[in-house]
Write a structure and sequence with these properties.
The chain is an alpha/beta fold. It has helices spanning 11-26, 40-45, 57-61, 67-86, 100-110, 139-169, 176-185, 227-234, 252-266, 294-297, 310-319, 332-342, 356-368, 370-383, 388-400, and strands at residues 2-6, 30-36, 49-53, 92-95, 114-118, 190-192, 209-211, 240-242, 270-273, 286-289, 303-306, 323-325. The chain is built from 15 helices and twelve strands. The strands form two sheets. Strands 3-2-1-4-5-6-7 form a seven-stranded parallel sheet, sandwiched between helices. A five-stranded parallel sheet has the order 10-9-8-11-12, sandwiched between helices. Helix 9 (252-266) links the parallel strand 8 (240-242) and strand 9.
Length: 401
């Protein structure tokens, strides 16, 4: 089949689809990945066709203020980009959480099937509150009601872009909420690319919603850590990783000083990932790195301090290493609470109240209390049994007939 995967957002919203796409390509399909322009190299390196989207993820996710306004602007640019990316044609659309609300209209116009490939459990459930908006349970009825409200907010954000898109595609007018309800009535399939180890499939989800296991970012089979990194790792005891990925842009100087101070307080070496914040170590037992595959780096760490994005949280569990979650925004408090709930991390340290002393205390706890590593290693053993990309390939094979 000619498959078009559509993903938008930050690095963590795109990278998992490089691994998924590479797996589908190995199964004999032609695979293209539409993603924001800055990720063209990431996609090309995985051997997939790249189709650029105009929406700049840094403008919509890099800051914590005015999120709804930023999201609306992001969505407004996204509609035409998705239509352009779909213009060369496809037999199947695989739609991420961020692209599905507009992708439904594209699938209708193209008269091709579509499947959701989500990285978060965004559909309403009574088992936990919406993944964006806090971790406090409202009870089964309240959780489902809050989830439904969240879906309506998403629909409102997409209303104008969907209307413009349907006009461009020559489709009759259809309210965004009506489009969503039609997908629900048809039990539109959604495959969730996260592990059931931290998040089992909610029992009250409708048919068609599956949790299949994590899709890992593509890494070349012959990849090796840079010489500088390998030398640093071999020169002393396992260090602590500190990174915030696509978060905290513009906060690099403060975070860098805080990270080095925390490591000094616990007497440990560190690997600091620059990320969008531009973090940097001091060179004295604290190494600064750019993008390095978590699968190669995290197993060599004593602990992983991170923003608790879905992919980074999964990578830390896969490595069997304790986490120190410092959630910043969006779904990150949800994943941070899941890590702590598994016993693979101490209590989350909210980014808004982060201090060197607080971070040092959390690192010390994660490293010195053996139970955190034991629980992380147990999660890693369970996750090793999963093969999320193969589960997707099985569904695609069924659609191909």
């Amino acid at each position: 089949m000619k498959i078009l995967i559509m993903a938008a957002g930050s690095h963590g919203d795109v990278a998992p689809y490089t691994g998924l796409g590479a797996h589908l390509r190995a199964a004999g399909h032609e695979v293209a990945l539409a993603a924001p322009e800055p990720f063209g190299g990431l996609v090309a390196d995985s051997g997939l066709e790249f189709r650029p989207l105009p929406a700049d993820p840094r403008g919509s996710t890099g800051e914590r203020s005015n999120l709804l306004a930023k999201a609306a602007a992001f969505i407004g640019r996204l509609g035409d980009g998705l239509a352009d990316a779909a213009a060369p044609g496809a037999d199947l659309l695989l739609l991420a959480t961020t692209t599905a609300p507009l992708g439904w209209h594209l699938a209708e116009a193209m008269n091709v099937p579509s499947v959701g490939v989500y990285l978060q459990p965004t559909l309403p459930t009574g088992e936990f509150p919406p993944v964006v908006g806090g971790t406090r349970s409202l009870g089964r009825w309240g959780n489902r009601a809050a989830g439904a409200v969240g879906q309506r907010v998403v629909d409102r954000l997409h209303t104008d872009a969907a209307r413009r898109l349907r006009t461009r595609l020559g489709l009759l007018p259809l309210a965004q909420g009506a489009q969503r309800r039609a997908r629900e009535r048809e039990n539109w399939p959604v495959l969730h690319g996260f592990s059931p180890t931290p998040v089992p499939r909610p029992a009250d989800w409708r048919d068609g919603l599956r949790v299949v296991g994590t899709w890992w970012p593509y890494v070349a089979p012959d990849y090796r850590l840079p010489r500088e990194v390998e030398d640093f790792l071999q020169a002393g005891p396992p260090p602590v990783f500190i990174g915030f990925g696509s978060m905290a842009a513009g906060d690099g100087e403060r975070l860098s000083a805080l990270a080095v101070d925390a490591l000094r307080r616990v007497g440990m070496r560190g690997v600091v990932q620059a990320g969008w914040a531009g973090l940097a170590g001091d060179g004295d037992g604290v190494l600064t790195v750019g993008e390095i595959p978590h699968a190669h780096l995290f197993p060599r760490m004593a602990a992983v301090v991170h923003h608790a994005g879905a992919g980074t949280s999964a990578a830390a569990l896969r490595a069997g290493v304790p986490s120190v979650p410092v959630p910043v925004m969006a779904d990150q408090p949800f994943w941070a609470s899941r890590l702590a709930g598994l016993g693979a991390a101490p209590a989350p340290v909210p980014y808004a109240t982060l201090t060197a002393e607080g971070l040092a205390d959390a690192i010390r706890q994660a490293v010195e209390e053996r139970e955190f590593r034991i629980r992380a290693e147990a999660a890693a053993r369970e996750m090793a049994k999963e093969d999320g990309a193969t589960r997707v390939a099985e569904v695609v094979a069924g659609l191909a007939g």
